[in-house]
Amino acid sequence: MxxxxxxxxxxxxxxFVKATAIDSASGTEASIMGPAGAPRSTLAEAAARKLKYxxxxxxxxx
Length: 62
Description:
Shape: elongated
Helix content: 25-40%
Largest sheet: 3 strands, antiparallel
């Protein structure tokens, strides 16, 4: 898979944070939830890994 630009969005919801990774080329999104105290870099990496999984899954199914 070629490298694409990925945007990361964080939304705090009480004691949790929703991290969403968005692929700039396709607009595909993948979200994860984590504790509000977790490092943002850890949440961003997890969301990006999930996005890459979703993109690969979509590519194989197409």
